[in-house]
Amino acid sequence: MDYRRLLDAAAAAALATAGQGRVADYIPALAAADPEAFGMAVATVDGELYGVGDWERPFSIQSVSKLFSLALALAHGGDALWRGVGREPSGNPFNSLVQLETEHGIPRNPFINAGALVVTDRLQSLTGDASGAVREFLRRESGNPLLDTDPVVAASEAEHGHRNAALAHFIASHGNLENPVETVLDHYYAHCAIAASCRDLVLAGSFLARYGVRTDGTRLMSRSEAKRVNAVLLTCGTYDAAGDFAFRVGLPGKSGVGGGILAILPGRAAVCAWGPRLDQAGNSVAAVTALDTLTTLSGCSIF
Amino acid sequence: MDYRRLLDAAAAAALATAGQGRVADYIPALAAADPEAFGMAVATVDGELYGVGDWERPFSIQSVSKLFSLALALAHGGDALWRGVGREPSGNPFNSLVQLETEHGIPRNPFINAGALVVTDRLQSLTGDASGAVREFLRRESGNPLLDTDPVVAASEAEHGHRNAALAHFIASHGNLENPVETVLDHYYAHCAIAASCRDLVLAGSFLARYGVRTDGTRLMSRSEAKRVNAVLLTCGTYDAAGDFAFRVGLPGKSGVGGGILAILPGRAAVCAWGPRLDQAGNSVAAVTALDTLTTLSGCSIF
Amino acid sequence: MDYRRLLDAAAAAALATAGQGRVADYIPALAAADPEAFGMAVATVDGELYGVGDWERPFSIQSVSKLFSLALALAHGGDALWRGVGREPSGNPFNSLVQLETEHGIPRNPFINAGALVVTDRLQSLTGDASGAVREFLRRESGNPLLDTDPVVAASEAEHGHRNAALAHFIASHGNLENPVETVLDHYYAHCAIAASCRDLVLAGSFLARYGVRTDGTRLMSRSEAKRVNAVLLTCGTYDAAGDFAFRVGLPGKSGVGGGILAILPGRAAVCAWGPRLDQAGNSVAAVTALDTLTTLSGCSIF
Amino acid sequence: MDYRRLLDAAAAAALATAGQGRVADYIPALAAADPEAFGMAVATVDGELYGVGDWERPFSIQSVSKLFSLALALAHGGDALWRGVGREPSGNPFNSLVQLETEHGIPRNPFINAGALVVTDRLQSLTGDASGAVREFLRRESGNPLLDTDPVVAASEAEHGHRNAALAHFIASHGNLENPVETVLDHYYAHCAIAASCRDLVLAGSFLARYGVRTDGTRLMSRSEAKRVNAVLLTCGTYDAAGDFAFRVGLPGKSGVGGGILAILPGRAAVCAWGPRLDQAGNSVAAVTALDTLTTLSGCSIF
Asked: Which domains are assigned to chain B?
């Protein structure tokens, strides 16, 4: 596959979306993002690395971090995780409390905020430092020792975090948190506020393209487990637009309100696209367009 | 009206419900209540006072306190309150988050937990000491200077209060709290944990039977405002069973999970019945039966 | 009480709402109503009759008919009705399917469309002619032998009645209809499409003010049963605005999208006000204002 | 791939589930199915055909027919279909009205009952005979001229079809049906009541494995469109358990309450497994187990 040509075409298509969508503005630190920035990178299973545009510029990874906290919680604790969180699409906006109430405090899947709080809680129990575990994994896989949480973003999330606090207390009221609410929220904000580039993220996510094998050749999880993480990414990874993302792009992927989307071509490569303007579902307009272009031109969707 | 005879008949009917229902057990302090206790009192607008059974024994008034926090918030702040809380029946269990989410953080009415948190918040803004204001009102009207918050109950509520914390944070996320979440919760727990007897409550509630006039003859609120509080009590005062309570008893009233119900015969009297065993909607089996008997025998429902 | 003076004051207040609200337009026959029409009538328990404005002009009574179908179903069949329909406020727009699904085909109360279909079904079983029973009762009580269903309105309701058909089939799917869906819908549309005036309705509704006694002195239902119907009217009679109607007006009442509201002053009188413009909850702006004025000036709300 | 060996292993695993789950019993015709029957078949893109157990025994395909009505509606009418039906997972039981009400009569996806009614309606508009179009397609692709609707099942569905009638009327009330409710329901019941075998279904479904090319080599739809149908199958094809099916099996697939599941290995084969006992989500216990075994042993899931 000629990834260089594909990246150029994808970037051109993304560029044509300029002006569409809105930068997330629920906290000042995110609202300050450059709305016209765009970057994209590919890391193949063979260790090749390609990039275009602002592919080495760090951005707030936000919910993309949930892919890593899930993988690490499964790697450390195995299937016990699934007793506290489901793996069904939510069919509701990503921060909804409604479903949580109906379903007795068991969040629908690990990628809605409620589910990610449970995953963070379990990772905290397993490692003693949930956000540290995510950060260390990203540093090691990307080879970028400077990769870190942006403390301004984390503080801003906490300050504006009444809704996440509501979710956490609600889950706790159903007995589905092992750690104090404050601890879980702190680590949740800390891993969501990590700043990383497309380059960093494709390297860190390439273990899923290699069916569980890290960049150094060691295994993080079994082949079967990696395929299952990919399945959850496909059905639940892009908020309430997972069906549409599967329809248009056809790859497992995880998006964040910072504008990044990390997608997996199983057996081939990890791809990350980034542009801060979001559509109504909270996914980057430029990144969805770029990924759509890449799979349309290459014919390499999973379907 | 021969209140002595009515109280005896109501008490006999309540006695016949022995064994029905379950004592609230979500916190240990409530679970310790004597399940077979029963008391009932009447305070007429003319200052007569009648009682039967355990009518002078204090119990945890819990949500009955919401009648007083509402009345005081209206007396101090007037109709501005209704910008932050509605006055429609909720049609859902009393601690539901679902409706709150659909309706953008404006609780349906002042008597579901969410609404009572908003009322407590506004009373805190108006008085600087929301729970103190409720306590002082109860002391003054009842003439019982020893009436107080039970600190064990308040602490226990706080300890098991993840759901109320979730509600408060959720309301705050919609910008509908003026004070910090912790402050609002503390005062909410403090006024719910007041211990008072049927005697205390009928005296303190008799201002609604006198259309707004306190026991000392001074006016707390206008006649029209008192009638409106009675209307809210009737449509929203007994959790998700307000329709059934209106159908069976036919009086405005407010119940609490401590087993008390304070009801109003407008222009005539305040009545309070207490028995710790609750039905599925959270209302005292004995108290509902006693009040039903009283209105059936006397024909004095409002309808 | 000087009803003549009260009616004049109420009419003046209603007049001042001219231009507010919108005439129901979901079927052409209703959309053709004169938006500025207004009438109001009072029938006392002693047989006095007062009217103002268009009080003798017939209009489509629509959901006001549900008061009569409920009363007749109870009079003929007693409390068995309550096995198939509840008596709690719905807390949702009047034609909602959501609650019906959650609660297994038992409608919340007899006045939401779903509940009125169940009531019509039971009245059909009891009388063999549900809409005829309502019509005959109205004719006899009002002394108006010409009072009848408007066939154009009934046909138009049926033609645009997919939502009511959905409700009926849904209730049937839960086994909560005794008669065929088509029969129930036909009779439902037929009694809702009755045309009657304020004069007709206060006479027909005065049995509730007389605690169950018809205009000819015979008893339709017991005193206790009449009071209970009044209780259901208060908590559920005005769609999703029952709490607000109790708060503002403070009387049991039933409204219809034709713009009529029939209200009860227990022990005193029946009052009906009519104006076709509706507020967002589906209640007549002019009629609510007129009734609010009447109870405010007279101080005769039930609270 | 040694399909013969895989089928034997899958059948053995399915056999071990004997006694688990319950045969659908909402209509007598389905309840009569042999609970211990099991069959499985594979049709490769190269025209090879394999089968095991009762793979040539016809069963009621039920919702599996929705795959074909969707494909034909898209083949005849293109993307216009997506204006009337979404492609997001529903996150609710398959026959729910709740989401339909919230989302204004646009069903979430083509595979919940509501969505399948809209698809049937559009196919009726496009072909003049929606159920005939599905039947003819299945006959031609399977080469089985005797394949037909079971009239007893269709009549039984109609007789017990109040809930589907409710859905159809509700969609019609939102203006989202082009044909009369009765017509749509008749054709819906007729294509769901088709009896076909695993053999018939893998042949008829193999066009999706061949990216849109029929068994005779002609093209039904574009490659891109076929991949998109596969995407919708994966995210929405197995009721409220789509996430779990993707997680365990990892293939696009469509299940029916008759116990059949038709799944696609893109570029390789169509697979169908059948066993009448259903799990709580309405999917065949034996078929899910058999497909899980097949992808686990072969490692050929799409992820």
From this structure: 3-298 (3.40.710.10)
Angle (CA) D245 D246 D248, round 5°? 65
Q: State the Cα–Cα distance between residues C237 and C205, nearest whole angstrom.
A: 14
Query: Any binding-site annotation on A26?
Result: no
Q: Cα angle vertex C171, ends C165, C173, to 5°? A: 100
Grade residue D228 by pLDDT with cuts at 50, 70 and 90: very high
* C272 vs C97, residue with greater confidence: C272
Residue A206 CA to residue A45 CA, distance in Å, equals: 7
Tokens of residue C200, six digits: 């007709």
3-class SS of residue C230: helix
pLDDT on residue D94: 57
Share of chain C above pLDDT 70, in %: 99
What is the distance between the alpha carbons of residues C231 and C247, in angstroms, rounded to a whole number? Answer: 14
CA D184 to chain centre: 18
pLDDT single digits (tens) A135-163: 999 999 999 999 999 999 999 999 889 99
Residue with tokens 């799409």: D302
Distance CA(A98)–CA(A108), nearest Å, equals: 11
Residues of D serving a catalytic function are: 63, 66, 188, 239, 257
One-letter amino acid for residue B280 of the chain:
Q
* Rounded Cα distance, B244 and B238, in Å: 9
* Annotated binding-site residue? C239: yes
Do residues A228 and D247 touch, judged by C-beta distance below 8 A?
Answer: yes
pLDDT of C101 strictly over 60: yes
The beta-carbon neighbor of C240 closest among B88, B109, B236 is B88
Average pLDDT of D25-42?
93
> How does residue B102 score in pLDDT terms, banded at 50, 70 and 90?
confident
Residue linked to tokens 């169950």: C212
Give B192-228 pLDDT, tens digit per residue: 999 999 999 999 999 999 999 999 999 999 999 999 9
Query: How far is C171 from C101, CA to CA, in rounded Å?
Result: 9
Smallest Cα–Cα separation from A188: which of A179, A175, A176, A197? A179
Kindly tell me the sign of the dihedral angle through the C-alpha atoms of A84, A89, A95, A101. negative
**Which of the residues A64, A239, A271, A284 is marked catalytic?**
A239
Mean pLDDT of C186-199: 98
Task: State the amino acid at position D219 in one-letter form.
Answer: R
Q: Could you tell me the maximum CA-CA distance found in chain D, to the nearest angstrom?
A: 52
Angle among Cα C142, C146, C151 to the nearest 5 degrees reads 115
Residue range D89-145, pLDDT digits in tens:
887 665 677 778 777 899 999 999 999 999 999 999 999 999 999 999 999 999 999
Give the 3-state secondary structure of residue D26. coil
CB atoms within 10 A of CB B155: 14
Interface contact flag, D228 A303, Cβ < 8 Å: yes
